Structures are given as C-alpha cells and as structure tokens.
Amino acid sequence: MEINIQKIRSLLGKVGVLDNNILNDFTELQCISLINKVFVKVYIPQSILDREAILETIQSNMEWLEYQPTALEQFESFEFLSRILDEKPALSEYDAECIAIAREKMIYCTSNEKRVMSICQEYEIECTGTVGILCCAFEHGLISKGEFHRLVKKLFSPECSAYLGRKVKHALFSYFKIKES
C-alpha cells in the first residue's frame, strides 16, 4: 500500500458523508470534532443515525460533531442504490446508501471498508477513511506531530476496534516515521 499524500492534503475543506465505522473510530480515539476541522460540511445518513447513534458511546460524543442528517433525494440515486445492492450482495444497505449519497451529492464517501472503497473507485466516487482524515489533519497542522502519532498508535492498538490491516499500518508508520512502542 502506498500513501497518496496529494490526495490526503486535498481533503481539507471538502464535504463528506460518514459511514458508521468512521463514527466509531473517532469516538474511540476521542477526537470526533477533528472531522469538522478537515471537512467543511459533514453528512450522516439518517439510517445510520437511527441505528448507530443510539449506542451510548457514540451518542455521548455526537454533541462534539457538527453534522447534517441526510438521505437519498433523487430517483436516479435510488436506482443506483438498488443496482449496487443487486451487483454486490456482500455490501450492507448502510454502506450502499453512503456510497449512493456521496455519488448523488458529489462528495467524499468516508469508510474503512475495503469493499466500499473498491466500489467508490469503480464508480469514480471520492473516498477516504480514518487514516486519510487523520493524515490530512496532521499535514495541515490541525494536530501536532505528537498528537498524530498518539492517535495513529491508538488506532492500531487493542483500545480501538478498527481493523485496518498490517499493510496499512506498515505503510503509515513507515511514511510518517512513527515508532512502535
């Protein structure tokens, strides 16, 4: 895996729709407000709010995140949603909805799921995950080097439920010269 620093830097000031795993990660990292420092506007699908935001840990952190609930609005987007659910049976309805919303609004889809990122790439929908958001914040001086290293180490520790894989960890630690402790 290679770090695309230009893409990471270009995230700042964009608009994004959040998948539940992004909400979970930033809640566990205790820096959910950092999302608003990277993205100028944040959408969360109403379906995810109805299902995920009822969890106590997320609910207690949602007050620190400025977001707008959203749902699909255009007929073509519902057709697209139906098509990707038919073509990609392993994809959850929630993930498919995030992808369809990002496509409809022409905004970033944020997810750590490989299949979501793969489908976004297939349909030329901009996509990033927790690592991209953290790296963007660091690259633009929104968090210090020490804070960035602390958050990245925590993300890959047993304290965090994210599973991003060894290749991602190795690429990230190598590129940013993060020492494992």
Keywords:
181 residues, alpha/beta, five-stranded parallel sheet, 11 helices
Could you walk me through the main structural features you see in this protein, from its secondary elements to its overall organization?
The chain is α/β, with parallel strands linked by helices and 181 residues long. Helices cover 53% and strands 9% of the residues. It has a 5-stranded parallel sheet. The longest helix has 13 residues, at 75-87. The protein is globular, with a radius of gyration of 16 Å. The two termini are 22 Å apart.
Give me the secondary-structure topology.
Elements: H1 5-10, E1 15-18, H2 20-28, H3 34-38, E2 41-45, H4 46-51, H5 56-59, E3 68-70, H6 75-87, H7 93-105, E4 108-110, H8 114-122, E5 127-128, H9 130-139, H10 145-155, H11 166-175
Helix pairs in contact: 6-7, 9-10
